[in-house]
Predict the structure.
Amino acid sequence: MKNRILLICPHTAIEVFKESKISIVIPRIPYVSLASLAAVALRAGHTANILDLSISQNPFVDLELALKNYQPDLIGITFTSGLCNEASAIVKRIKEIDSSIKLIAGGAHPSVFPEEPIVKYGFDYSVFGEGEITFLELIDGHNPASIDGLAYRGTDGRIIVNQPRDLITDLDTLPYPAYYLYNAKNYHSPRVASRHSPVAALETSRGCPYNCIYCNKHIFQKQFRAKSSKRVVDEMEILINLGYKEIHIWDDCFSFDLDHAKGVCDEIIRRKLKISWNIYNGIRVDRVDEELLRKLVVSGCYRVSFGIESGDQNILNLAQKGITIQQIKNAVSQAKRVGIDTLGFFIVGLPGETKETFQKTLALAKEIDVDLPKIAIATPLPGTKFFNDWQAQGLIRSNNWSDYVLHTKKRVATHPNIGDEEMFEYYNEFYRAMYLRPGFIWKRFWRGLKTGDIFFDIYYFLKIFVSFKW
């Protein structure tokens, strides 16, 4: 029997950042994960649609209209830990309207706690890990007991968690994501986060083999797998034809295989594809060379983000980052030499952090002088070594998953060396020190004149610094 499938992104997927300094730079982008799931369902003969409540002005009104007009048989909802309450509220409303609809949980949080969506939030099924094949077998009507990567409630009421599913070794065997189920005109990206709008997300690979303690690997795990260069650029062309003006790469580790990353650039250049793109999720400073950076520029990539995290080598070691301060300096220097914009991700509050180590981070940030520096307060997210270690030490103080959001005042753990207010002050100090420097302002001014972004820069500058306190 063929089913009508509705895939939902919760309404607060973007709103969780509304009280943070980065709220104005968060782009609204269609979720590639839902487009990928929809494509699997469509190829099997099912009907599929996507309801992105993150762009809705009246999410529950839109939810009710979708249920009335589309009449789905099964609904899948993707959510992170910070969106558990919202996912639960959506489930409750769906059950009130039509209790016959089967509800499937997926995403980062269900992959860490596969039983919880069924026990606490009212879902019928929970998909954990890489979801396409598990999701397909479920909607195709396979016996739940035979489906790897699935949790469900047995006939006796017990929650059964099946064995994990093997990873998809050849990503090219997946159908092209059903990007056309989104309307590009509904998505807007702020100019500081992109050069053009609307923006689409693109996946060129899955998996990251590194061991950073703050990173959750429960979905795509550690085995690096890449789509072929042809497949990647095919998807870029599809997005361009759908009206997207810019593409952001959302990979965990885009340049782990340098030859693959260069191959993507070469294929874009070979096809003479005119597209603005951006490695939004970032690349490692030890997985980049000047040849790649030059190819990125020629192929239309205007910005690369680096995961820098700390200016103290011991903090990097404790975080199991696997990089050195010198590699950070080298990567940023190479990027500047080829003329590509740089964004640096920093973190305050990792294990071992002190006032002195934070000052080293601030000093390094000033020295390397990336075009856009961003800092987050370290949050031990469920499923990470960071969380498990601090839970074992009794430092985790919140079991409310909705508190687990980066860039907000909500603190979920007690840092051994730094108090809450002191942590917030470091966060604010970073932005004051980095963005109020005369050199930074002067550099942005001239850059803005050259690119036409001067008025946008002034607007975002005023928005960010209207207040330094929450």
